[in-house]
């Protein structure tokens, strides 16, 4: 590994440094801060609020991991990344965890050497159009100008969708969500396409959200999840089981409000194992026994995080849909804590 | 008194490499070169080794995979099933388009502004000063984004053209549509077209050349050749007899008759843009992204060129102007016939680097979503395949080739206009 130090200095760092990292968990603990890659600003998922504090669904994931590993949900350094820079940032070791609406695909997992630690949002690519266009289906979009964020899977899905339906379109590639909004609102494109959750978040930030509709077609599967570098399985386990802890907590009825009571009073062995009052799960992860308690207390369980940031009572207004617990007919299904 | 004798023949000894000043510098240079090459080779092998350790060996096989994305502005036929290589080629052509357009406009504007800045008219010269200072002191990226924002926000969307009493109408006798998605201008169509010739069959580099275009160029070249003959004949006659024969009607005829005949034979007509569905169809679509990038790059670079031109003109001694004026030449002619030809010798060399700058600055295209080679090969392809090193290396190679070609052409031109010295 000596060689790669020099190489890093020789500006090919982005690629080489990935190999130089061994124990991310140790690095994070030594640093006392978790470097977490998020979007450059997408309301509900990750955006700084009026006080400059990062808030959102993805941000909560970062905070939960920081709470589990470092004991402090605020010990997070948020690194804004674009669709293009996110993978390089992760591969180079600039960030420890990428929680940025990233679709889990074969090539990203296998070829780009990343490890998706699970799915925290089941999404699909959708279309948003102004109501006054009178369009009710994506198949009526022949000849339309479509604004699309570049560097994402969406441009591939889009090309495939229009090709299979044998209709033409004019793609307008755009670097960030903010620019896409500007072009879409000015009428420079008829349609804006990205993940349906992102569309809902974008629409919520419009002056008049009711003037825009989401078309019924969802043209792709977009399982969004946090990811870490390939090859550091201990760190991958920490992140994966933090996410699973949040999901299990909702399933088991553990919330940020009742967690202290439940930890001492419960008889349910699975809750006990989860919260560390029984067994040595934390130790196996290389953490202390209360890691999951802190992760859940940081922002609540999965359901609470969802409701607070993107749920139906927020301006984003997303229904749980596929993201409900498996017991409620959704796809969220955490492996058991035992 | 000295006698010249042949110096004793010295036999070459190895130690002379170090102790003989005739060889020493060469020795040091060779050793330095070897050291440098070793360092470079070590870095290279290191990179390759580390990439292999990461499971990412350097290989270019991904180029033949389907690109799977669409590109809006394509000069050659392309769809999402074509390979990454073809996508890169489309991007390269887009880069060249904006670079060539930009260099031409920047030169025209730059020369104009540079000359006007020296104008004795106070207002004109001050306006030009403001222009130059404004453009060259703000980063070009901001100008590009600014130009795009103006185009998007201030121009009407295509749907404003719809309805009984539309909010916007087409310009120039209903032939040009200016929208916030770009400008649609009429296109040349041929109803009795000669067809195309295809090159390179089905490969990624395939392209078509329109026979109509070739025919037009051939006829145009023929006309110009004939016109030059006529002018030469007129010059000869003038020298021999002192009278210049009237030639303008012959020249006009030589230019227009063959061309018009050809156009009629090909069934030339204009295809006008027409609002159909979401967008205008027909006509040539110059996208906003191209216009914004072109405009911003030309105006920005023109500010630098203006200063170079001004410097070149100021370098010519004022005596030349006075001498020309004493001969009775007018202001405009002094500039055109006496000052500019000499100033060119000072202007051309720094101009080359401005052309290079403009071309390289065109890689900011993605800021407005213009799909140049940085957007295709260095953007989407790099992203989708994850082959950063290969893509970036290739990208560097491409820009290097473009820049060296520009330099070669400009240096050749510089050789031609420079003062012949003895």
Automatic annotation (TrEMBL), chain A:
UniProt keyword terms in alphabetical order: Signal, Transport
Pfam families noted in UniProt: SBP_bac_3
SUPFAM superfamilies noted in UniProt: Periplasmic binding protein-like II
Stored CDD domains: PBP2_BztA
Keyword Transport: yes
InterPro entries in the cross-refs: Bact_solute-bind_prot3, Solute-binding_3/MltF_N
Signal peptide, first to last residue: 1-22
Superkingdom assignment: Bacteria
Matching SMART domains: PBPb
Domain Solute-binding protein family 3/N-terminal: 33-262
PANTHER family: AMINO ACID ABC TRANSPORTER PERMEASE (PTHR30085), AMINO-ACID ABC TRANSPORTER-BINDING PROTEIN YHDW-RELATED (PTHR30085:SF7)
Family recorded in the similarity comment: Belongs to the bacterial solute-binding protein 3 family.
Record's protein name: Amino acid ABC transporter substrate-binding protein
Originating species: Ruegeria spongiae
UniProt lineage: Bacteria, Pseudomonadati, Pseudomonadota, Alphaproteobacteria, Rhodobacterales
UniProtKB/TrEMBL annotation, chain B:
Domain ABC transmembrane type-1: 92-410
TM stretches of this protein: 23-44, 87-113, 134-152, 209-227, 248-271, 291-316, 392-413
InterPro entries: AA_ABC_transptr_permease_3TM, ArtM/GltK/GlnP/TcyL/YhdX-like, MetI-like, MetI-like_sf
Family of the protein in this entry: Belongs to the binding-protein-dependent transport system permease family. HisMQ subfamily.
Membrane topology annotation: Multi-pass membrane protein
Protein's UniProt name: ABC transporter permease subunit
Subcellular localization, as worded in the UniProt entry: Cell inner membrane; Cell membrane
Pfam families from the UniProt entry: BPD_transp_1
Keywords attached to this entry: Amino-acid transport, Cell membrane, Membrane, Transmembrane, Transmembrane helix, Transport
